[in-house]
Description:
The structure is a single chain. The chain has 18 helices and no strands. The protein is globular and about 60 Å long. Helices cover 78% and strands 0% of the residues. α4 packs across α12, α4 crosses α17 and α6 runs parallel beside α14. It comes from Aliidiomarina soli. It holds the Pfam family Nramp.
Amino acid sequence: MAFRDYITFGPATLVAAAFIGPGTVVTASLAGAEFGYDLLWALLFAVAATMVLQEMAARIGVVTGQGLGESLRSLVVHPLGRPAFITVVLAAVVVGNSAFQGGNLTGAALGADALAADIPLLHHVQETTQVNLWAILVGLIAIAVLWSGHYKRIERVLVVLVLLMSLAFLTTFVVSRPDLSSLMAGLVRPSIPAGGALTMMALIGTTVVPYALFLHASSASKRWPRVAGESPGPAVGAARRDVLVSIPLGGLVTLAIVSTAASAFFGQTASIEGAADLAQSLNPVFGSAATYLMALGLLAAGVSSSVTAPLASAYALSGVLGWSADMRSWRFRLTWLTIIVIGMLLASLGVRPVTLILFAQVANGILLPLITAFLLLAVNRSELGQYANSRWQNLLGGLVFVVACGLGGRSIWLALWAG
């Protein structure tokens, strides 16, 4: 097998694009600024857990030729259980992503604004306009990308965005000259510094996300369509190599953000509140190049998440409701278009959809362990034959399920009592 066959960028790259959004950039920036390298072990665990779950989701998509939503629909047959399950998926994936889409577009707009800060005309237009023009522009770009209805074209766009943000954040990481000995210690020595428990859970929760499982299974089924009479073995192997390349790359990007923030702010009096502050504050520390690279990474992260979140929602809703997953069908397009438009309205008007976000946190808290449990059931079905889970895969999946329950409880607690 040629070397290039091992370096596969496919549907798993969409997952990396999904979890490296503005929310992850903010969480990673705050983790590094407040706790240095101490929480990197949690990120390492999150990446490993994501690889375990996403490999199962991709295997279901390749072997069955269906998305995760379709597989779950066939599992949940109880007349009372199915409406309840559909309601949770609708709340967490569709309504939740509508709220978070505003954050995706806002994050992309912050990156674009930082890049255009030295262009007087653009800066003046943005400052004198009542709406966030960058957010509208990014939303229109997301619509243009998805409207093509061509999976391979969308995948190529997202691969480019992931590689662009990887280059930007990793170069910033090198420029920031991190303490490599502290970095390695943070990766292999689990510890929770005082006040770091919620940040640790947030770092894991922004990486292990339920809607990415729907996105991956459906994308894998389209990337490697099932041909009658042919063994899915080669496609399963390709999907696994894709996971082994793309998910760790996404984790490496998050590690770079944590480390950059740790290098610039940990142990100092200066503080940051988000990724945009980090981008602006890098200038006096590491020069203008680092500022522009961080802003470019934030822009790419926002744009990629603005495409993947609506796409995942359309796949999930189509699957659980039994609709066609054809990317050019009107229901499929209406789903992602609605989410993007809601996000554009929220971001362009500067509205913080607090109620929707709290609602989405509760729904996600319920959905993550639920989807993990159903994923384990789906990947052990006899229909998968030799591609069903092994004992070790079930053991790893069970461990992730336990963590998912903890993450779910944390999300619900924060939304209902701390929020």
